[in-house]
Amino acid sequence: MKIVVCIKQVPDTTNVRINPETNTLMREGVDSIINPFDMYALEEGIRLREKHGGSVIALSMGPPQVESALREAISLGVDEAVLLSDRAFAGADTLATAYTLARGIRKIGKADVILMGRQAIDGDTGQVGPGVAENLGLPHITEIRKIEEIGEDKSIVVERLLEDGYVRLKTSLPVLLTVVKEINEPRLPSLKGKMAAKKAEIPVWSAADLELDTQRIGLTGSPTQVMKIFTPPRPSGGKIFEGDVQSTVAQLIAALRDAGIAIGQKKGEA
Amino acid sequence: MAEPIRVILDKCVGCGLCLKVCAYDAVSLVDKKAVINERCTVCGACVGVCRYDAIEIERRPFKGQDVENYAGICLFAEHRRGKLSSVVLEIIGAARELKKELDRSISAILVGDKVQGMAEELVAFGVDEVWMVEDPSIGDFDEDVQSDLVTKILLEKKPEIFLGGGTILGRSLLPRVAARILTGLTADCTELSIDGDKKLLRQTRPAFGGNIMATILCGGHRPQMATVRHKVMKEAQALAGHQGRIEKLDLPILKPRVEVLEFVEEKMDTVNLAEADFIVSGGRGLKDPKNFALIEELARSIGGAVGASRAAVDAGWIPYSHQVGQTGKTVNPTIYIACGISGAIQHLAGMKGSDIIVAINSDPSAPIFTTAHYGIVGNLFEVVPEMIKQLKE
Questions:
Q1: Residues of A in contact with B19 (CB under 8 A)
Q2: Please, which residues 11-70 of chain A have a Cβ atom closer than 8 Å to chain B?
Q3: Confidence (pLDDT) at B61
């Protein structure tokens, strides 16, 4: 079985701070990490290989520094990694990113399962997975919390999380799946993995290495345009109620009801 | 390949603001001028922060469609188990606001089995035209089949705007449609309006876990597509006597590639965070899994759902489906009551859109108090039972 896991390197928002004077996001000294949801995708890919054999390939698109994320993926246990990197890819929105990744997956060839995290924590869009599937002409299923089984006949049964429960779905390989955190608990890198990561040769494919339409990549291939980025206004500061327990709770409930919220009120009360 | 982003040296004063906002360490100062290196992803953060308009992104977008031939506001009428999803009324509400500025008709795409009643409901709420494909073979979870039909209808009818819900279905289906049509799609918008000059759809959305907002346009491609965050826009009210046209379309329907084996509903009252008006959440401060009973009791007393912080979920106290935050759900209830949650930035990312945030925490310096509208510093094991008691009175 050939498994491709698409990962994204993102700024670690744990360390993001707001500058209280300018109300802007301070990203100074922020580390880069593998998108947390992609860690679950990597783990699931490695588990599938452990169970069914084959190989796992990590794929990412981004500037040269993304190589470190791919090395980390190798340290966790993926067999190979490929970086799609070219200034021509820069500034891609989700449409252009999905197209470029799909071209990379096509060049890798013969993928049975393509895994991704449900969304990246910087853009928060979740659009690239379904977009890649569309570009490859494959079915996709989002929000996977469990891969129940993959049969000899290449059928696959999964559980997909919904707003009000979950649904068990069956389809056949090849398929693209996006995963949620519940699916597994990612392992830590092994010593052997770390050694492999150090030695690994990570091929870098540029636009010229992929068979693609240069009109559909990077900024040129991106229909959406960011007009403005701003920091949302911060709450003007909350009210902390003072007093004993009984009095603070009474003040809170009164404040909520004053705000027009019928909290805990029985019928007939105003 | 020319560099897509450049610093206009005459305008740059070397203030260094762009260095501080860059998440990729891609800007440095050389001779008091900003220099952008190859680490840059052209995310645009530096452009937004520059007070001297000294950084410029050069765009030469590929040629889109014949933009002028597209007109009207269209929406995806998502439904599940025989009912329109509540987000649809919110989208109609947003579309009716846009209609005031744009003066175009509102249409809806409705595909599925036994949907005639929903089509009439759409009209009653202000939709002028419903494009409907009714067929028993179209299932609720057939994104493949549904996205194919939606694409065909959009290409034939050519609306200039197409909106869907920022729901699990909408965020799965619309990206496929956008990738097929080759147009722009903006995820999870919290604000939509019409740009003055060119009458473009101005789409505003949170990113970076709600720490920044971005306003996005799609100038050269149609339809301009967006998903809308649930529970942010105001629901439309029925328009008395509103008339609309329901057009049944006869289109070929693909054979589904994904088969539904079983749908398992989870207890509606406490787990459906997306629909809940009231949410009571518990965190590490609960100290023990059995104390979630207290959170549940408070939630039940106000008819709300139960949420949890990542710490509580990771400790195995409550299932993941309750997790609120960056790696869990994003919620927008009327009231969010955080009990024993310190308020890490990842948790705030999932709930800061709530109308009113109440924090109960024993640590007065907990970051949750900076985001909360109302706070009680105290022992939650005393405060929560007192709330339950007073709410009963």
A1: 28
A2: 11, 13-14, 16, 18-19, 22, 24-28, 30, 32, 36-37, 62-65
A3: 55
A124 to B38: CB separation less than 8 angstroms, yes or no: no
Condensed to tens digits (0 to 9), the pLDDT of residues B37-87 reads: 888 878 777 887 788 889 988 766 556 668 888 999 999 999 998 999 999
Predicted ipTM?
0.91
Integer angstrom CA distances of residue A74 from A77, B84, B146, B220, B269 = 5, 46, 38, 41, 43
Check residue B115 and give its pLDDT.
96
Strand-pair partners of A144: A160, A179
What gap in Å lies between CA B310 and CA B347, rounded to an integer? 7
Of B57, B64, B323, the CB nearest to A219: B57
- For the whole model, what pTM was predicted? 0.88
User: Would an 8 Å CB–CB cutoff place B265 in contact with chain A?
Assistant: yes
Which residues of A are less than 8 Å from B184 in CB distance? Answer: 93, 95, 222-224
Closest-CA residue of A relative to B375 is A240
Query: What is the domain extent for residue A249?
Result: 239-270
Whether chain A has a CB inside 8 Å of the CB on B312: the answer is no
Residue B263: count of CB within 10 angstroms of its CB: 17
The domain boundary residue, chosen from B218, B248, B278 = B248
Residues A76 and A21 in one domain: yes
User: What part of A 160-189 touches B (C-beta under 8 Å)?
Assistant: 160-172, 180-182
Give me the number of domains chain B comprises.
3
pLDDT higher than 80, residue A269:
no
The CATH number of residue B31's host domain is: 3.30.70.20
Which residue of A lies nearest to B183 if distances are taken between CA atoms? A223
Q: Please, are residues A63 and A191 in contact by the beta-carbon 8 Å criterion?
A: no
Query: What is chain B's mean pLDDT, rounded?
Result: 90
**At A103, which helix (H) or strand (E)?**
helix A94-108
CB-CB neighbors (< 8 A) of A88 in chain B: 1
Specify the pLDDT at position A268: 38
B41 vs A90: CB contact, 8 Å cut-off? yes
Q: Does A234 score more than 90 pLDDT?
A: no
CB-CB under 8 Å, A224 with B263: no
Q: How many of the other CB atoms lie within 10 Å of CB of B249?
A: 16
State how far the Cα of B364 lies from the Cα of A2, in Å rounded to an integer.
Answer: 52
Angle at B114 between CA B113 and CA B120, to 5 degrees: 125
Which pLDDT value is given to residue B179?
A: 95
- Determine the 3-state secondary structure of B243 from DSSP: coil
**Chain A closest-CA separation from residue B357 CA (Å):** 9
A92 within 8 A of A213, measured Cβ to Cβ: no
pLDDT digits (tens, 9 = 90+) for B351-383: 988 999 999 999 998 889 988 999 999 999 999
Q: Find the domain containing B28 and state its range.
A: 5-57
Q: Tell whether A203 and A110 lie within a shared domain.
A: yes
